[in-house]
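Batch 3, record 17
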Amino acid sequence: MKIQRLGQLASVALVGSLALAACGSDNNNASGGGASSGSGGSSSSSGAGGSGAAECGSGTLNAEGSSAQKNAIEEAISTFQDECSGATVNYNPTGSGAGIKQFIAGQVDFAGSDSALKTVEKDGVVEADAAAKYCGSPAWNLPMVTGPIAIAFNVKGVDRLVLTPQVAAGIFSGKVTTWNDPSIAKINSGVSLPAEPIKVFFRSDESGTTENFTKYLKAAAPSAWTAEPGKKWTGKGEGKPKSDGVAGAVKSTEGGITYAEWSYAKDNSLGIAQIDNGAGPVELTGEAVGKAVSAAKADGQGHDLRLKLDYATKEAGAYPILLVTYEIVCSKSKDAGKAALTKAFLKHFASAETQKSLEDIGYAPLPDEVRTKVDAAIAALS
Amino acid sequence: MATVTGVSVADEVPGPPERSPLSADGAGTRRLGDRLFGGAAQGAGILVIALVTLVGLFLLWQAVPALARNEAGFLTSREWTVSGDHPRFGIVELLWTTVVSSLIAMAIAVPVGVAVALFITQYAPRWLAKPAANLVDLLAAVPSIIYGLWGLRTFGPKYEPVQTFLQDKLGAFPLLSKTSVSGSGTVMFIGIVLAIMVLPIVTALSREVFAQTPVAHKEGALALGATRWEMIRTAVLPFGRPGVISASMLALGRALGETIAVTIIVSTLADQTVWSWSLFNGGETFASRIANNAQEFDSPQKAGAFIAAGLVLFILTFIVNAVARIVIERRKAFSE
Amino acid sequence: MSAADTAARAPSAPSGGQSSSGRPAGGRPAEPPPALGHPARVREARDLLASVVMWAAFALALIPLVWILWTVVSKGYHLLSEGQWWTNSQKGITSRREGGGAVHAIQGTLVQGLTTALISVPIGVMTAIYLVEYGRGRLAKAVSFMVDILTGIPSIVAGLFVYAVWVTTFHFQRVGFAVCLSLVLLMIPVIVRSTEEMLKLVPNELREASYALGVPKWKTIFKIVLPTAFSGIVTGILLGLARVMGETAPLLILGPYSKSIATDLFSGYMATLPTMINQDRTESLQPAVDRVWAAALTLILLVLLLNVAGRLVARFGSVKK
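Prediction for the assembled complex:
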């Protein structure tokens, strides 16, 4: 008797949960929540709708990788899915290395990485070869998102701070330890710097942001930053996981300084240092980033593209600490349906309109010259 | 709710002396149904053994090649360079952080947890005992990521002044000295959060054991004129001691292996940071270092190094469980 | 063992002790235990001190525990009160946009949890039956010890193990089912232990009576032992389920997040509440922060629901001697 009653109870519970599983909606367009968001990107998609709809493809794309491009690709996915109701794109911002690893293991349709596939051996693996082996065709790097890395700080009474690469390298390698150090004071005349210790925060996870930031330090101040650039932090300080971890830590720590993607510095309302590469201090603005990015040159062979950044640039008004995220794809996909969908999505992502919309959320659009090449590469995907 | 913790009260309660399974049905075992069912039951048991063996072997198999290439003492080095041609890695710091944070957690959670269990079973008025027990049970099931988020965002900022105060007043004492780590990302704070996390486990288990104290013992003590506290000391605590010990061991195992809460709270240290005995230093536990880097296991050697660390954690929890087992076994032997 | 039962039983036991405070002067025992041989005033003071300490400990423990619940509830409830939280997924919602719901994650959590239970329950219950009804000698000891070790396997190690088997060795995709497998490793020991406990509470007389009637052992277990222990076993299963549903670490390795509804365990990504929390916690923007707490509250509510279900089942019939 009891058991029967229990059985009934259990089946009611089961049916209940199945019923819950059966309903539910993926359609968030009607919610209207987007209107109040202040992000210009989501509503601008209507213009491209006509041309985009023809080559939508349907199904699900899975991608993984760089967390630096998370906000950008989320925006692109959102507008892409608005256009193509049959398509779903998932992106997991687990990190560049993870993206490449999962791509090589055949776990994702494309990977996002803050550095192009390496063509030299590292720990017994040549990334480019391994990727080509999985694809059965060369894997291409397509530069897609460029964004600045901000040096974000939290010092009481200081909202304008200028750093040269030398001084930044000194701070992040632990040689400069107090805020009123003469080397900082010299380039910040008129700013009252406190005699407080500098607290450096770094990414405790391995990160493409770390790699790009150390690349900058190495390129712009080779004498002050001697460690090899890499995903693992080689300087001093204390580590916090992910960009939000370091940004959050600086926010709550008097005297803190870190490096993070621009959007994290902005979202946490942290102070952002101006960078003086030799041609005067440059504030981090969309314009300054655009100037530096437009100076970037496309590199690489055929449709396998690299973006060459000049970290040590002395151009006036160009913000030099940049990061490029590549989408890594198989040039010939094994699955025709997925290939069409990948193509459609990347085309949408690289479109002038999408790229422009990224400006509002802390990224810089690809320069037109580069974008044309990327477009051509996407068209050549099969 | 002891079930949440996976240890059975029956293990700790000396109750009826251990009985061997009924075997009166010698005739029955020859029947087909019996052979099938008995075989299935045994098969399930063997499957469990196979699973654990597999996990252990897998960890070894992955770890050994990396260990063989390691150019530093695995058990003695503080370095952690796992990629490249000359990997050098050791677990000293991980071991220190893991063990110390868990010990802090135990030092707080066990006394408080036992006291709360005694309160619920012996002191609390009836109207309070039941809701309190339910609340504690619910909290034993709250996912650890929530403890982590709460620790990072809500509790951390409130805790910081206390830490600063301690550092200022007692900084001369090496365990409490000032370090480069700021805010709440310290081993001490991790220990406190872990304590709050395992407290419901200790409480839930101890409460079950205390509630099983034979009424005769308690009434006997009271009849001899003991006060309530004396009754607890002479009847309830001795009866519940093995249960409390195994509850603590279980909580310790949980604290040692806790991943996500530790990962999002603790500050890691840069390479070659000066060693400090301070509890206000940062660090990484085995689990948090694996979690921080799990996404970037892009070569077998790298993965192997982290898995070797996982193996140590596995062995550590293995030891904790074995100790708990021995304590329980010994208690059983005494009770007969 | 039902916690509610013990809790309810517990305070009634020492009811005789309520009067202890007024005891000492008159009836001094002829032979007090050595530890009790202090003057009455000291003993009374100690008793009072102990009471104060217990109340204080309870209050102290209550502070963080209530604080956690309060934090989650106060920060999470307003999203839960919106209808779309329970009907919509996060598809197309970026971290700077409000809106969307958690239905994809709730479904994923339920589907994965139920599948995990479906695999672990037979293995766990059978292992427990083996230990209690059949187990003798070395093998049983070994099984029992292995269950203990399984209890102690850190969840991240379980995730690593399944990743190496599933992805590295067999080159399968990371799908919901792989997550279930790692959760099975974590759930089995919980079920074995709780079921073992309940089976041990079944009086031997019942078994003996059944054997005396000529019922085979397997039928006795099926028809007599298991039904008697049924409610306890179910409680244990539900509580184990609550534990694995909140597990995050293996999902970091095995369970990529998706913002869309997906209930296919064998293809594609599947969202769960823990991965949803983990994804959104990396944002400092308000909409994402709100969703983190709302998802946490949803997870707690699910766990609470399971707890209540467990209690109900326990109340339907607990094992009595």
